[in-house]
Design a protein that fits this description.
Order of helices and strands: EHEEHEEHHEHEHEHEHEHEHEHEHHH
Oligomer: single chain
CATH class of the largest domain: Alpha Beta
Radius of gyration: 21 Å
CATH superfamily of the largest domain: Glycogen Phosphorylase B
CATH topology of the largest domain: Rossmann fold
Number of helices: 14
CATH architecture of the largest domain: 3-Layer(aba) Sandwich
Distance between the termini: 25 Å
Length: 390
């Protein structure tokens, strides 16, 4: 079978968790599947940046993804022609949108429903295009992938889809696959980014649903008793909402106690994870929540929102809090840095729990969806892997 992967949406360092998802999925498919042939359709920004196996090859499309109208038009008009030309048997679009007139069976991953639940995240025209393209991509596809059971149910309801079409496939445990840098190298990395210990870590791009403004308020109150801590925010900060967050920092007089790193490469991210006191993830909406598992894998106590999707992914290995309560977030921060018994329990449970999420399992379940799409059969929930996807 010849499988196409639509990477036209991906702008390196700009699309957050969806970039980790695509890159790790491609790497894992290369490890577990030597039988099928894969063609990755790339754009000008991501050309040559994928680690491809022997049965993978890249097909470059002259698409500039930074210019959204150009990318949308190319995805709808150029990609179907290229897919037919390359003899693709099934096309996977991991970034919400697929060609509406696809020449082969289509599989689409819908990572979340932020464009519906937090429409202010998108400019007006982009929001309208998302509503139209995601809905019609979903209805025309042979199969969809959601990243959790809760997300699956939400997508079924929001897009009015038949239950058999949407398949829940968990992601792996984040992008950190090597051992952290040694202490001397970590010290240099932290110094270069203006980070001093002890610090609390969160991973979040500058979007309203990430709830960083409320986290900053909670951190302000937390420092009434824990003045030695600083807050480190890792994630893309290139949009208009990032200015609002900086204004919140200034209003709370936290300029000397909060660090925005922006997007950082994997080695730097590993170093920052390794020396953090804890990980906090206060998001108001997630399809999955990779940072939760990244924190657990790194041996950090993790506190996160009690959202259904995050509670599903975190299990009993995280401290859950109400993300709309400043007091609740502040209380979670204090508990996870000062209660030694709780810290030890969360660290032990977290490492064990995160070990059940691997990209190989993600790849195997995704490959099963490809086969089902080609065969035209409904994906059986009873036959797929559940729980930790084993």
């Amino acid at each position: 079978m010849r499988i196409g992967i639509n990477a036209l949406y991906l702008i390196p360092g700009r699309v957050g968790g969806s970039e980790i998802y695509l890159r790790q999925l491609i790497s894992a498919l290369a490890r577990i599947d030597r039988e099928n042939e894969y063609i990755v359709f790339t754009n000008r920004e991501n050309r040559g940046t994928f680690d491809l196996g022997d049965n993978f090859r890249e097909h470059h499309c002259p698409v500039k993804a930074l210019i959204r109208p150009h990318r949308i038009a190319s995805e709808q008009m150029v990609l179907p022609y290229r897919a037919r030309q390359q003899g693709i048997d099934v096309l996977h679009s991991p970034g919400f949108v697929a060609p509406l007139f696809c020449p082969c069976p289509s599989v689409v991953t819908i990572l979340d429903l932020i464009y519906l639940e937090f429409p202010e995240t998108f400019p007006f025209l982009a929001r309208q295009w998302m509503k139209f393209l995601v809905k019609h991509s979903a209805h025309r596809a042979q199969a969809l992938i959601a990243l959790s059971e809760y997300s699956r149910d939400e997508i079924l309801w929001a897009l009015d889809l038949p239950f058999w079409k949407v398949n829940s496939v968990y992601m792996g445990g984040g992008e950190m696959i090597s051992t952290p840098p040694p202490p001397e190298e970590r010290a240099v990395i932290l110094r270069e980014h203006g980070i001093t210990s002890p610090y609390i870590l969160t991973v979040a791009a500058a979007h309203p649903h990430k709830n960083i403004a409320r986290l900053l308020e909670a951190f302000y109150h937390f420092r009434d008793e824990m003045k030695q801590y600083r807050l480190v925010i890792v994630g893309v900060q290139h949009n208009r909402y990032s200015q609002h967050l900086k204004e919140v920092v200034e209003r709370l007089a936290l300029n000397d106690h909060v660090t925005f790193t922006g997007w950082i490469p994997g080695r730097v991210k590993e170093a920052i994870f390794a020396d953090a006191a804890m990980m906090v993830f206060p998001s108001l909406l997630e399809g999955f929540g990779l940072p939760v598992l990244e924190g657990m894998r790194s041996g950090l106590p993790v506190a996160c929102s009690d959202l259904p999707s995050l509670a599903e992914v975190a299990g009993e290995a995280a401290y859950l809090f109400d993300p709309y309560s400043v007091e609740g977030i502040s209380r979670a921060l204090k508990a996870c840095v000062s209660n030694d018994h709780l810290r030890a329990e969360l660290i032990e449970k977290g490492r064990s729990h995160a070990a059940g999420f691997t990209w190989e399992k993600t790849a195997r379940n995704t490959l099963e969806v490809y086969y089902k799409a080609v065969e035209g059969n409904h994906f059986s929930r009873s036959n797929r892997e559940t729980g930790s996807n084993e």
